[in-house]
Structures are given as C-alpha cells and as structure tokens.
Amino acid sequence: MSSAETRKPATDSAPVKAGPDLQGLEPPLAYTIPRACAVSGLGRTSIYKLIGTGALPAFRCGGRRLILRRDLVAFLERSAAADARSQDDGTSASLRKPRDPTS
Question: CB burial class (10 A; 0-12, 13-18, 19+) of residue 47?
C-alpha cells in the first residue's frame, strides 16, 4: 500500500457535536461512548472503567456499546450525592468504608 493509500485508524476521540438536524428533538435514549463522554464531562478511560466495574451499565447493539441516558444520569446523581456526603463529614468518598447493608 502506498503512502497515498494509507488510512488513519478511526478513533472515538473526535469531537461530538449536535448538528442542526438534532435541534428540537427529544434527547436520545442511549449514548455512544464518545457522546456519553461529551455530555457527562467524563473521559473515555473513566467511562470504560466504570462499565468494567459495573458502576455504569452498558450494552452492545450491533457493533456499538451504548449507555442508556437514564443510567448515565443516575450514575452522575449518585456520584454527586456521594461527593456531597463526603464533604459533609470531611472524608473522601473513596477513603470511607462501604456501608454495611444490614444496618
């Protein structure tokens, strides 16, 4: 293959924009990984780690991994609430012991 025929690999890091055709429509029911990153402010690696740990549910549809909008919103709300609790008691959420579900 000559240098003129060499192709760059496609990446998910391209900027994601809402085009004019999306204005006035309901928000999507599910996001691709790049769109979830764009709307949440989370990085791609963080999203994949959260999916891997089960903290953020995702599923495959065709060849794409999708995150339901309601699952992304719920995760962000849980994270914000945990952060607020940790600021109230002066500890980092990651340093606190997990709650005992039996108490």
Answer: buried
